[in-house]
Predict the structure of N-(5'-phosphoribosyl)anthranilate isomerase.
Amino acid sequence: MTKVKICGIQELEAAMWAVQAGADAVGFVFADSRRRVTLEKAAAISVSLPAEILRIGVFVNASKAELQDALEKVKLDYVQLHGDESPAFCRTLTLPYIKAVSILEKNDLDILPAYGGEMVLVDSGKGPFRGGNGTSFDWDYLKDNRFSSQKLILAGGLNKENVGEAIHKVRPYMVDVSSGVESGGIKDKEKIEEFINEVRAIKTEIESGELQ
Protein backbone atom coordinates (compact mmCIF):
# COMPACT_ATOMS: atom_id res chain seq x y z
CA MET A 1 0.00 0.00 0.00
CA THR A 2 1.14 3.50 -0.75
CA LYS A 3 2.12 5.15 2.51
CA VAL A 4 1.06 8.65 3.56
CA LYS A 5 3.11 11.48 5.01
CA ILE A 6 1.38 14.55 6.44
CA CYS A 7 3.92 17.35 6.27
CA GLY A 8 4.08 20.79 7.85
CA ILE A 9 2.98 19.64 11.30
CA GLN A 10 3.11 22.46 13.84
CA GLU A 11 0.74 21.35 16.56
CA LEU A 12 0.31 18.12 18.51
CA GLU A 13 -3.41 18.13 17.76
CA ALA A 14 -2.77 18.00 14.00
CA ALA A 15 -0.16 15.28 14.47
CA MET A 16 -2.66 13.18 16.37
CA TRP A 17 -5.30 13.73 13.69
CA ALA A 18 -2.81 12.33 11.19
CA VAL A 19 -1.98 9.35 13.40
CA GLN A 20 -5.63 8.55 14.12
CA ALA A 21 -6.51 8.75 10.43
CA GLY A 22 -3.80 6.23 9.59
CA ALA A 23 -0.83 8.29 8.43
CA ASP A 24 2.54 6.53 8.29
CA ALA A 25 4.74 9.61 8.67
CA VAL A 26 4.67 13.23 9.77
CA GLY A 27 6.92 16.01 8.58
CA PHE A 28 8.35 18.93 10.53
CA VAL A 29 9.60 21.94 8.54
CA PHE A 30 12.74 23.55 9.95
CA ALA A 31 13.43 25.76 6.92
CA ASP A 32 12.01 29.23 6.26
CA SER A 33 8.30 28.64 5.75
CA ARG A 34 4.94 29.64 7.20
CA ARG A 35 4.88 26.05 8.44
CA ARG A 36 8.22 26.32 10.21
CA VAL A 37 8.40 24.83 13.68
CA THR A 38 11.09 25.09 16.35
CA LEU A 39 13.19 22.10 17.34
CA GLU A 40 11.74 22.34 20.84
CA LYS A 41 8.14 22.29 19.63
CA ALA A 42 8.82 19.46 17.20
CA ALA A 43 10.55 17.46 19.94
CA ALA A 44 7.54 17.86 22.23
CA ILE A 45 5.24 16.60 19.47
CA SER A 46 7.58 13.79 18.47
CA VAL A 47 7.78 12.29 21.94
CA SER A 48 3.98 12.01 22.02
CA LEU A 49 3.70 10.04 18.77
CA PRO A 50 3.54 6.24 18.49
CA ALA A 51 6.89 4.62 17.81
CA GLU A 52 5.84 3.28 14.42
CA ILE A 53 5.17 6.75 12.98
CA LEU A 54 8.08 8.02 10.89
CA ARG A 55 9.34 11.44 11.92
CA ILE A 56 10.86 13.38 9.04
CA GLY A 57 12.52 16.79 9.30
CA VAL A 58 12.60 19.15 6.32
CA PHE A 59 15.71 21.29 5.79
CA VAL A 60 17.14 23.65 3.19
CA ASN A 61 20.94 23.86 2.93
CA ALA A 62 21.53 22.95 6.58
CA SER A 63 24.98 21.95 7.77
CA LYS A 64 25.81 18.42 8.84
CA ALA A 65 25.98 19.64 12.45
CA GLU A 66 22.52 21.19 12.22
CA LEU A 67 21.07 18.03 10.72
CA GLN A 68 22.62 15.85 13.40
CA ASP A 69 21.45 18.16 16.18
CA ALA A 70 17.87 18.10 14.92
CA LEU A 71 17.95 14.34 14.41
CA GLU A 72 18.94 13.80 18.02
CA LYS A 73 16.69 16.42 19.63
CA VAL A 74 13.53 15.57 17.71
CA LYS A 75 14.24 11.83 17.38
CA LEU A 76 13.91 12.07 13.61
CA ASP A 77 13.96 8.95 11.47
CA TYR A 78 15.03 10.88 8.36
CA VAL A 79 16.20 14.32 7.33
CA GLN A 80 14.62 15.56 4.09
CA LEU A 81 16.92 17.84 2.10
CA HIS A 82 15.10 20.45 0.00
CA GLY A 83 17.99 22.74 -0.86
CA ASP A 84 21.01 22.77 -3.13
CA GLU A 85 22.65 19.79 -1.43
CA SER A 86 24.88 18.02 -3.94
CA PRO A 87 25.06 14.28 -4.53
CA ALA A 88 28.56 14.38 -3.02
CA PHE A 89 27.28 16.08 0.14
CA CYS A 90 24.42 13.61 0.51
CA ARG A 91 26.65 10.59 0.12
CA THR A 92 28.92 11.78 2.94
CA LEU A 93 26.06 11.90 5.43
CA THR A 94 26.08 9.31 8.16
CA LEU A 95 22.40 9.77 9.03
CA PRO A 96 19.28 8.62 7.14
CA TYR A 97 18.33 11.17 4.49
CA ILE A 98 15.82 11.78 1.73
CA LYS A 99 16.87 14.10 -1.09
CA ALA A 100 14.05 16.16 -2.56
CA VAL A 101 14.27 17.24 -6.19
CA SER A 102 12.11 19.84 -7.92
CA ILE A 103 10.73 18.68 -11.26
CA LEU A 104 9.90 21.00 -14.16
CA GLU A 105 10.92 18.78 -17.06
CA LYS A 106 11.30 15.03 -17.44
CA ASN A 107 15.09 15.19 -17.59
CA ASP A 108 15.11 16.74 -14.10
CA LEU A 109 14.57 13.17 -12.90
CA ASP A 110 17.87 11.96 -14.33
CA ILE A 111 19.92 13.08 -11.33
CA LEU A 112 17.87 11.21 -8.72
CA PRO A 113 20.00 8.03 -8.58
CA ALA A 114 23.15 10.12 -8.03
CA TYR A 115 21.96 11.28 -4.62
CA GLY A 116 21.84 7.80 -3.14
CA GLY A 117 19.80 7.16 -0.04
CA GLU A 118 17.00 4.72 0.61
CA MET A 119 14.34 7.16 -0.57
CA VAL A 120 14.05 10.14 -2.91
CA LEU A 121 11.28 12.72 -3.09
CA VAL A 122 10.01 14.43 -6.21
CA ASP A 123 8.15 17.72 -5.94
CA SER A 124 6.96 20.34 -8.37
CA GLY A 125 9.43 23.02 -9.41
CA LYS A 126 6.58 25.50 -9.89
CA GLY A 127 6.14 28.21 -7.29
CA PRO A 128 8.26 30.55 -5.18
CA PHE A 129 9.28 28.13 -2.45
CA ARG A 130 11.45 25.02 -2.19
CA GLY A 131 8.35 23.00 -1.42
CA GLY A 132 4.80 23.39 -0.15
CA ASN A 133 3.68 25.47 -3.12
CA GLY A 134 0.61 23.35 -3.72
CA THR A 135 1.54 22.81 -7.36
CA SER A 136 2.06 19.55 -9.24
CA PHE A 137 4.14 18.44 -12.21
CA ASP A 138 3.42 16.04 -15.08
CA TRP A 139 3.10 12.64 -13.41
CA ASP A 140 3.45 10.96 -16.80
CA TYR A 141 7.18 11.64 -16.43
CA LEU A 142 7.21 8.85 -13.84
CA LYS A 143 5.12 6.27 -15.67
CA ASP A 144 8.28 4.37 -16.57
CA ASN A 145 9.70 4.74 -13.08
CA ARG A 146 13.41 4.15 -13.51
CA PHE A 147 14.34 4.44 -9.88
CA SER A 148 13.48 0.98 -8.65
CA SER A 149 16.54 0.91 -6.37
CA GLN A 150 15.11 3.82 -4.37
CA LYS A 151 11.73 4.23 -2.76
CA LEU A 152 9.92 7.13 -4.41
CA ILE A 153 7.98 9.74 -2.45
CA LEU A 154 5.60 11.86 -4.52
CA ALA A 155 4.83 15.41 -3.41
CA GLY A 156 3.44 18.55 -4.97
CA GLY A 157 -0.15 19.70 -5.20
CA LEU A 158 -1.72 16.49 -3.95
CA ASN A 159 -5.23 16.47 -2.52
CA LYS A 160 -8.13 14.05 -2.16
CA GLU A 161 -9.35 14.82 -5.69
CA ASN A 162 -6.13 13.95 -7.52
CA VAL A 163 -4.20 11.53 -5.30
CA GLY A 164 -5.93 8.57 -6.92
CA GLU A 165 -4.73 9.60 -10.37
CA ALA A 166 -1.25 10.23 -8.98
CA ILE A 167 -1.00 6.77 -7.44
CA HIS A 168 -2.39 5.16 -10.57
CA LYS A 169 0.28 6.79 -12.75
CA VAL A 170 3.30 6.79 -10.46
CA ARG A 171 2.74 3.95 -7.96
CA PRO A 172 4.90 5.75 -5.39
CA TYR A 173 6.12 4.24 -2.15
CA MET A 174 4.69 7.24 -0.30
CA VAL A 175 2.61 10.33 -1.03
CA ASP A 176 3.46 13.57 0.77
CA VAL A 177 0.76 16.18 1.40
CA SER A 178 0.70 19.51 3.18
CA SER A 179 -1.40 22.31 1.68
CA GLY A 180 -3.84 19.71 0.29
CA VAL A 181 -5.04 18.93 3.83
CA GLU A 182 -5.27 22.51 5.03
CA SER A 183 -8.00 25.12 5.27
CA GLY A 184 -6.84 28.71 5.51
CA GLY A 185 -3.26 27.55 5.92
CA ILE A 186 -4.09 25.39 8.94
CA LYS A 187 -4.26 21.58 9.05
CA ASP A 188 -7.84 20.39 8.70
CA LYS A 189 -8.90 17.19 10.49
CA GLU A 190 -11.58 16.32 7.96
CA LYS A 191 -9.28 16.88 4.97
CA ILE A 192 -6.58 14.70 6.53
CA GLU A 193 -9.10 11.89 7.03
CA GLU A 194 -10.52 12.26 3.52
CA PHE A 195 -7.07 12.22 1.93
CA ILE A 196 -5.96 9.09 3.75
CA ASN A 197 -9.29 7.37 3.07
CA GLU A 198 -8.84 8.07 -0.62
CA VAL A 199 -5.36 6.50 -0.58
CA ARG A 200 -6.81 3.44 1.15
CA ALA A 201 -9.56 3.20 -1.47
CA ILE A 202 -6.96 3.16 -4.24
CA LYS A 203 -5.11 0.38 -2.43
CA THR A 204 -8.31 -1.67 -2.36
CA GLU A 205 -8.85 -1.11 -6.08
CA ILE A 206 -5.29 -2.14 -6.90
CA GLU A 207 -5.49 -5.29 -4.78
CA SER A 208 -8.84 -6.26 -6.28
CA GLY A 209 -7.47 -5.84 -9.79
CA GLU A 210 -9.89 -3.04 -10.63
CA LEU A 211 -7.02 -0.57 -11.10
CA GLN A 212 -4.25 -1.61 -13.44
In short: Residues 3-208 form a domain with the TIM Barrel fold (CATH 3.20.20.70). The longest strand covers residues 97-103. Residues 127-133 have pLDDT under 50 and may be disordered.
